Amino acid sequence: MIWFTVLAGLAILFFVFLKSFSPYFKDDCAYILRSIKLGIRLVKYKKIKPFYSILDSFLDAVKRHPDKILLHFEGQQFTYGEADKKSNKVGRALQAEARLKEGDTVALFLANEPSFVWTWLGLSKLGCPVALLNFNIRSKSLLHCFSCCGAKVLIASPELQDAVEEVLPTLREQGISVYLLSDTCKIKGINTLSEKISRASDEPLSPQLRANIHIRSTALYIYTSGTTGLPKAAIVTHERVWAASFVQAACGSTSADIFYINLPLYHSAGFLIGLAGGIERGMTLVLKRKFSASQFWDDCRKYNVTVMQYIGETMRYLCNTPEKDNEKDHKVRIAIGNGVRSDVWSDFLNRFGDIKVKELYAATEGNIGFINYTSKIGAVGRVNPVHRFFFPYTLIKFNIEKEEPVRNSEGLCIEADRGETGLLVGRVTQRSPFIGYAGNKTQTEKKRLHNVLKKGDLYFNTGDLLRFDHENFVYFQDRVGDTFRWKGENVATSEVADILSMAQSILEANVYGVKVEGHEGRIGMAAVTLKEGEEFDCLDAYNKVTNYLPAYARPRFIRIQPCLEMTGTFKMKKVKLVEEGFNPALINDLLYFLEPEKKSYVPLTEEIYKAIGARQIKL
């Protein structure tokens, strides 16, 4: 009895010690165990024959619970069994009309709607890779994205008919078959599909139609957002689909959860983590045509949502909605996403309750990612030895001005110190490959970094600057190129944007560096939008940037815009703004200049602009 008491006491002391000196020990153990289980499953899927895909996972879910709701959408609901039959009809109609066979790539130009789901499932049953086109792109970008993937068939929503018609002559010249999910269309060269789908049989399609598909086969083409130019088509293999679908499981969701997808399905977050992850879990999904801050919580209450998804600025939009008494009246327990600022994260929790925010770091085409499984505010992940063993990576020193890694006398990269910002690179291995971009060898090679830690090794260059702290947390700092250099100092655009957004009149800010003739580097400038009914408060904005930012980081120019140009996933576009610079003769928007002598921002006149060019005003 005495020994039992002593052992119990020692055990209590041990756990108290761990709690004091390693407060995340329990979280680490739980995540590592979960990761090992998921890793074993992925290894099993790699070896199993015939190949077991996410489609097979869906078909198993159909067998287990055909009457369980798969999708809620605008008052409609569709069960797993119904989705299976609808996808059979789509597959058969396309097999007959487009003569599709295993390996043929099909481009989907569809909005967030249920037909997206069974069109993809139907094509998967035929063994066809699918290119997910951004439904916001038009003209040159649309043709570029379509051409990248080598598709011979395009399937579009009726509401996107005008965009298709615009590029139709080029598509017809290339012999592309174009189908509209509609009953009628009077435009020559566009075929209708809805009636043919309704007449098709819903009998199961033979697995032999996709008999040669394997773990490294291309499943999807997902396009990068194109913040710095035309989008690139990332090749997503079936192995990558599985790995991304496991994010939900790694974050703790189960088949009993109800998952809310309000992000575009053409993007990896909405499709891979949301749709594929929901199918992997066998859960019910609530699909939204587009994100709506005003309807968000009403939807969550209506459908008993337990897991939500966010990206970019969506969480901030929620925090900007008018406060209501019932804000914590919901069942959401987990939020999965990326890109939330620390202050918004705190505001979100204060307003909407104890939701476990699982912030992610990943890239569609990348071979390394992190999950902040502890919900520590501000971190995008956590370093642990098991993760690093399976997916080797490192942070290396990076020269911001030259935009290249720092190398030693032997030509090798230098690892960044703990607490120091560095470029994240992931070693390319059999377990963590980098496939690259379809039809773009140049961009693929740009992402390959050779001779990193030893001669002959190969790493994937994420293009992201991160920092590992002394508690093993991972913090995102900035994108390479989103960091600029002024007065010999590096300026992180995200940090400056956070400070500007603290100003009373400013709603959001897009920060970038612009060239000034006769000066080295790039000086800070910001395009901002104002809160409704507000005018730009020059003095308040000046006080914020001077109180919180060093002189070299303060944006000297402010551009007031009615709205900021965004990609479909709320990433701010900068290229055009950088090119336009700060010449008031060429820009119709209101421009302001930070005037230290007046301790305020002042309207940027042509006189001031000319004085800057003549070096009469010191920057």
From TrEMBL:
<keyword id="KW-0812">Transmembrane</keyword>
<dbReference type="GO" id="GO:0005789">
    <property type="term" value="C:endoplasmic reticulum membrane"/>
</dbReference>
<dbReference type="InterPro" id="IPR042099">
    <property type="entry name" value="ANL_N_sf"/>
</dbReference>
<dbReference type="GO" id="GO:0005886">
    <property type="term" value="C:plasma membrane"/>
</dbReference>
<keyword id="KW-1133">Transmembrane helix</keyword>
<feature type="domain" description="AMP-binding enzyme C-terminal">
    <location>
        <begin position="495"/>
        <end position="571"/>
    </location>
</feature>
<dbReference type="Pfam" id="PF00501">
    <property type="entry name" value="AMP-binding"/>
</dbReference>
<dbReference type="Pfam" id="PF13193">
    <property type="entry name" value="AMP-binding_C"/>
</dbReference>
<feature type="domain" description="AMP-dependent synthetase/ligase">
    <location>
        <begin position="60"/>
        <end position="385"/>
    </location>
</feature>
<dbReference type="InterPro" id="IPR025110">
    <property type="entry name" value="AMP-bd_C"/>
</dbReference>
<dbReference type="InterPro" id="IPR020845">
    <property type="entry name" value="AMP-binding_CS"/>
</dbReference>
<dbReference type="GO" id="GO:0004467">
    <property type="term" value="F:long-chain fatty acid-CoA ligase activity"/>
</dbReference>
<protein>
    <recommendedName>
        <fullName>long-chain-fatty-acid--CoA ligase</fullName>
        <ecNumber>6.2.1.3</ecNumber>
    </recommendedName>
</protein>
<dbReference type="GO" id="GO:0000166">
    <property type="term" value="F:nucleotide binding"/>
</dbReference>
<keyword id="KW-0276">Fatty acid metabolism</keyword>
<keyword id="KW-0547">Nucleotide-binding</keyword>
<keyword id="KW-1003">Cell membrane</keyword>
<keyword id="KW-0445">Lipid transport</keyword>
<keyword id="KW-0443">Lipid metabolism</keyword>
<dbReference type="InterPro" id="IPR045851">
    <property type="entry name" value="AMP-bd_C_sf"/>
</dbReference>
<keyword id="KW-0436">Ligase</keyword>
<dbReference type="GO" id="GO:0044539">
    <property type="term" value="P:long-chain fatty acid import into cell"/>
</dbReference>
<dbReference type="InterPro" id="IPR000873">
    <property type="entry name" value="AMP-dep_synth/lig_dom"/>
</dbReference>
<keyword id="KW-0472">Membrane</keyword>
<comment type="similarity">
    <text>Belongs to the ATP-dependent AMP-binding enzyme family.</text>
</comment>
<dbReference type="GO" id="GO:0005324">
    <property type="term" value="F:long-chain fatty acid transmembrane transporter activity"/>
</dbReference>
<keyword id="KW-0813">Transport</keyword>
